[in-house]
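Lab notebook, bench 4. The sequencing result for the construct came back, and we need a structural model before the next group meeting so we can plan mutations. Quick request posted to the team channel:

Model the 3D structure of this chain.
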Amino acid sequence: STSTRRRRRKALRLLLLLLLLLREKKRKKKKYLSGAEAPVQDEDEQVVGTPGIEENEGQKYTASAMMEAARSDREAKAVATAYRKSWFGRVYAKYLLSPLGLAFVFAATATILGVAAVGCLRYEMEFNYNWFYVESLRNGYVVRSDDFQREFFPGLGAGEDSSSSFNVYTKKADYFALQGQMDELLRRFGGLGFVQSASLESNWFSAHRAWVVASSSQSGGNTTTTTSSIGSNDEYVASVKAFLETEDGAAYSTKVVFTEDGATIAATEIETFWDASDTTQQAINRMRQARRTAKDAAPELRPIVYATIFVWLQGLAVVTSETVRALGIACSVVVVVLVCLLGDLAVAALVSGFVASTCVCTFGAIHWYGDSLNFISAFFVVVSVGLASDAAAHVAHAYINAPTAYTTGHQRATHALDTLGSSVFRGNFSTLLGVLLMGLARNYVFQTFFWYLTTIMVLAIWFGLAVAPATLAVLGPYLVSTAPLADAAPSSKSSDDDLELVAHQNTTMNTTTTPPPGVVVVTVGDDQHDHDDD
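Done. Here's the predicted structure in token form:
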């Protein structure tokens, strides 16, 4: 229809107008970068020289000549942005690197590290498979069954009110000759304070002995010995088989396993009950003590003390040492990489200190968050090494590679914040935004992800954009050579940084502004006059 065609023509005109505007903007930007729209100076041009160096034909450069030398793509971009200072370099650095700002940063950092150190000394180890239950399935069959079991038949986990079952296994051996070790194993196990001695009264070995005594008594034999009619291992094995076939021994038929030929006992099982542990660390200590006791009491029987919960306890028993070992390896690799990429051992050591501080704070947060050290939380302590090194390393790199005109730590730190402060902040903040959604989850794993990744990101921003610049500003003269240009050897070529400084002077058009340290402004005649003098 006519109205439809009219709308299409209108849309095409708007699109054409937009394309023309974009083309014009691109043309102006390209023209500006090429130097065609560089500000026109007064009759007298600015000449950049090096203090203490006599100007001659090989060492005198006019601003326009140096602009011609900066026509490459990289240098042109530097010219276009040299005079622009970000908020981090213009405002943030001003307050951060002030005496009051430095005092606040160092005091706050000392407080954070102190609180984290206390948390590192008070952490506890704990793990429970119930943490993996999803709240949305709280009324599910598995959860309801588990709640019922814990209410009426507790005792499967640490901290419960009842006891738990733990088994003692023995391996293939001459049980007739090793009856003394079996007696010692039962006696010493019953002497452990956390083992319920009554549970040891019901075991195949004691029951078989009582059966032999009863059988010997009924046959008129000597009741003072349990082996009146047994004189070898073969006879002992035959006696055990006969006992297991009786009504009294049928309950232990699954507790004794024979070899295929039936001539020897291959393995046995003795079930015991332990008092519930108050803490996971107490359960780990009991597990280790029970293993040592069994090994010392019956070494030739090669006993094994085991329960399903030992799978978790064994992992928790080594989680601290494994975490420390992983941290040591990760930090060592980070130090090597920092030394290679930064090229400065002192600065690399300083950044490594910031990384270590972040790890300490993350480890200490385990206690203050009411959490415990386990397989999941330990993961984030190790991951913090990589996430924490990024921000501080970028700021330190910008500090080291600051223009040679910046002769003080304060100037270099300001340059680092001006150059990479915004990028570092956006990188960490974008990661933080991605993590925030996990805070809405109700599962323990996702909640742990949220709390610790948020902690690491906040600490990375703090150490990268506050502690690192402040420390580098104070310790700058002792870390990086900041000799002024006057002390440097004369050169007939200008560095990229010098070109950026010259471009900055050309664009500001303010001849009264004090130039950066190490660069002086000399007023001479115009180009034609200079060539005549030459």
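Residues 47 and 65 are 10 Å apart (CA to CA).
Will bring this to the meeting.
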